[in-house]
Amino acid sequence: MMLKNRIFVHINDIQMINLSEKELKDSLKHPIFRLISETADELGLECYVIGGYVRDIFLERTSNDIDVVVVGSGIVMAGALARKLGKRAHLSVFRNFGTAQVKYKGLEVEFVGARRESYSHDSRKPAVEDGTLEDDQNRRDFTINAMALCLNSARFGELVDPFYGLEDLEDRIIRTPLDPDTTFSDDPLRMLRCIRFATQLNFFIEDETFEAIERNCERISIISRERIADELNKIILSPVPSKGFVDLERSGLLKLIFPELYALEGVETVNGRAHKDNFYHTLEVLDNVAKITADWDGDKAERKLWLRWASILHDIGKPKSKRWDPALGWTFHNHNFIGEKMVPEIFRKMKLPMNEKMKYVQKLVGLHMRPIAIADDEVTDSAVRRLLFEAGDDIDDLMTLCEADITSKNEQKKKRFIDNFKLVRKKLVDIEEKDRIRNFQPPVSGEDIMKMFNLSPCREVGVLKTLIKDAILDGRIPNEYEPAKAFLIEQASQMGLKVVDNL
Questions:
Q1: d(Cα 164, Cα 394) in Å, to the nearest integer?
Q2: Contact 222/122 with Cβ under 8 angstroms?
Q3: pTM of the entire predicted model
Q4: CA 252, 256, 261, 264 torsion-angle sign
Q5: Domains present along the chain, CATH in parentheses
Q6: Could you tell me whether strands 107-113 and 65-71 are parallel, antiparallel, or unpaired per DSSP bridges?
Q7: What confidence score (pLDDT) does residue 10 get?
Q8: Are 71 and 26 in contact (CB under 8 A)?
Q9: How far is Cα 148 from Cα 163, in angstroms, rounded to an integer?
């Protein structure tokens, strides 16, 4: 199916602005550029700001990362600039790569000498030799990233655009400066970057360039999992990430880098009954979550990525749980629990963090059916109380995921779920205020139980703690010390235990 038929959320287009020569000069208004210009002139070196910073000037996007190419030694240039800036500048030199970085007042300026590159088939690390500006622009990944602005005083602000990147910006096209087969074969990471830029900017990938990705997709095998994960995360954080994942699937890359997600694609029909395409359903949920979390910042900024990962993985267990039942049709029983068990291995393979971020995603995947089950039935205090207990501080994010999961085209069914979710949310607030279940701590601890009945650590202590917890969650006793203690004594007596210390 064509891409245009699979975009679920409207994208706010990023617009390109046209700039006169004077306006282009004025865009380099930060004092750092004049200092670089002075330094370059003093050293007699040609110097250009290049790449993303130039592209983003025309897209009116702010950037604090500046790449500068020097026809000569970038390290020498960076050192001279750092001395000119004084103590507030921090210089880092990477001699193995022939680069240097100057950090100054929130800016990061990367200096590299203009170079020519050649690649071997089994590595994306090129052999490098000194070159001209033309050589350096030839090695750039895409035309929109190959534009350069001269920083030397005689030509300050002059645009050097040999591959018509400005026209491609205007036409919203991603293409390579040179032969795309060579570009992608030399450095296969550029295939992911191509799809990532198209997703972030809502651009189109030129046909010849996309076909080259299809032809060279197997080359992705030489790229490290860390670099792949980094590009995937940037796609996931885009305004409409489904665009990127559709391109990954169409190009053949998805089945190579994320086979578990690729396995969701497709529809099977038995006796005229088909299930929905879980791949495109997942993308729709992801876009819904992306829309909800678009403005998350501050404390929420980091959770944005992992909630989106949870939306990608929420149905990941469906291929393994899919069954045909003549009476019920297609079923996916326990897909949430299967998916929960799959999350650690996927994170491990992807080189994603195996810490609380993975556990957060795992929890949401495992619990995502619970609010739906509650909303589909009578919303009881007991069910809501148990949900709150298990979700803890992640309950709001879980509810966001579940609401995003409502993709039914049956408007009546959709409205019923939405209305019931509102009721669930209200109950969550009411019960939390009344029973303090979130991050539940029992009013009577295990130490209290052992002391009260003169017990060492044993099975009985665990049983009694569970009985108290269940009684509170079921609403049979309030989450308070005295009622819990009375309930404990009653239950313990049925187990033949007597109070020796009444606390």
A1: 48
A2: yes
A3: 0.84
A4: positive
A5: 16-171 (3.30.460.10), 287-435 (no CATH), 446-494 (no CATH)
A6: parallel
A7: 37
A8: no
A9: 11
